[in-house]
What does this fold into?
Amino acid sequence: MSADNFTPVRGGVTAPVGFLAAGLHAGIKKGPHLDLALIVSAREGPIAGLFTTNRVPAAPVVLDRLHLRRGLGQAIVVNSGNANACTGKAGLGHAVEMAALVANGLQAPLRSVFVGSTGVIGQPLPMGPIRRGIPRLIGKLRRAGSGEAARAILTTDTRAKETAMQARVGGRLITIGGMAKGAGMIHPDMATMLAYVTTDATLSRAALQQALRGAVRESFNCITIDGDTSTNDTVLCLANGMAGNKPLKPGSSGYRVFQRMLTAVCRHLALEVCRDGEGVTKLVQVVVTGARTEADAVRVARTIGTSTLVKTALFGEDANWGRIIAAAGRSGAVVDPAQLDLSFERVPILKRGAPVGKAAERKVSAIVRRKEFTITLDLRLGRGRARVWTTDLSYDYVRTNASYRT
It folds into this structure.
């Protein structure tokens, strides 16, 4: 079964059986913008997670890593407008208090509540609005609350990002839903942004963690907007088993379907993050084939995807393919200039290290005016393969980040 066989459904994180959500304006942000979200399962279940590789993790990341050791979850509370990062012991205490407020309101174990924060780094979390907001948030929980929750976690995003898919596995209908935020500070290595996924499938915590790791490797770890890894990046996947299927075990056909559907959900969210990136006008898939090793392919793809000169050329709609080759050459991977093949949407521009000619240049110049397209570089040295989705770097990205706090 391919991703095309999965049935898209409405509802985001509340599409799976047994999940409720809510979002509201608590007062963390100025104006009427939603800034506090909650996702709740009708019962505890296995939870999997991956977090930032940044050596300065935010307080919610520290807390979630601790709670993840228990392996069970029931609720996820998220605030936007403040990252609760670089806030010392007080910040960790605030993250714990957020979890405790939700746990007490739901009469759930403290360690089954996970916390997320996003926004400005280095400012104390305003707990007054959060203490007042969480009881209201619990009172607003409903099946139709996914959209509000997805909007409440946004920062510089221009729109909410959510999706849900279904498939029959072993005679049972299994659903996976998700929501994400992110527009800047996006780069691979878990490193992602914030993403929350729910499912009513039945499987062990270890099986869920394995599936999530694979899905993230093929989605969130394949996107880059600006090369920055945030302090708060988190992906959580909560399962409650309410679909009633037999436990999905790694290696089984049902587990493989689940893995592919989870990957499809994560990939959809990851690409929506790219499309809504700060100042983004282009989404470009960079495919590297023929590398001596997979690690070399990854090095080349990421170097091209994060090259400032490549990204500015994309914004200017300039088919400056020399910048792509230069990036590959400085990637640290094994590269033979005489073997390189480069194409844009299957139109060759370079063969065996030599330019194809002006006719190809004209075709490629038309391709780079599209909003989305694929660049493929074949190193012709082996079987290593990788891909990265990257974006352009525009004037608006600089404007947004030059005045982020003001």
